[in-house]
């Protein structure tokens, strides 16, 4: 009887997966989350031996797609991408969000991370982060910063930095990074806190002066740019991330199969190169590590949002 039960258990494990897996991307096609999802899905399909099909379900800052994952059958055949928006900021900004970012999901692995950069127009007087801090503190409320949208990671990241240094600036939200960068490059707005991929070409061309980058270490594409940590802001790190989640209640063996396959996918040399080229740097951590990261993100942004009395409808 014992051996029969064990054999059945092994057969059940071996059977997963035996049909296509749906990967829900909670943002529209063509954006950074979608790019990550499609690049990783291609390699994960090869590793798992079944097709991983990307399905875009955009809307409500990613909440529609995330909720679809939360409500899916916990059998491993529907997974999704979580971001700092769906599992960090949105749960704190939108009281009517239809899911619990911790209780309704099984964390699998954080796939990639993408740093953010604080940059200024070349005409701005600050040449480094120390000078920037001094200048902003000496001129409270005089200058504005461009961001990709009110309540987004770039806006909240800058708000958090200003809270830390005791500075005041005007938040100027745009509908995405592209128009925000256009105005900073053009000199209409002097400062921008933006993600790595969209800022990089303007920094390399000299149209923006980068002051500091988030993350634990310097980026090899901008080796002369110090991190916030190196510049003295040890506990400040606002990094975009894209992780794999399933609905709550996934069986342990299914969870581990998915986590290991997708972590292996992002560490594959060819896949890693494609991700790095797009400004997303492979992570591939464990379910426990990713779960702890999500809880930390929620706590961090809760504090920032409450302190800033930030409310969005």
UniProtKB/TrEMBL annotation:
InterPro entries documented for this protein: BUG, Bug_dom1
Coiled-coil residue spans: none
UniProt family annotation: Belongs to the UPF0065 (bug) family.
PANTHER family recorded: BLR1237 PROTEIN, TRICARBOXYLATE-BINDING PROTEIN
Name the UniProt record assigns to this protein: Tripartite tricarboxylate transporter substrate binding protein BugE
Organism this protein belongs to: Parapusillimonas granuli
Taxon lineage: Bacteria, Pseudomonadati, Pseudomonadota, Betaproteobacteria, Burkholderiales
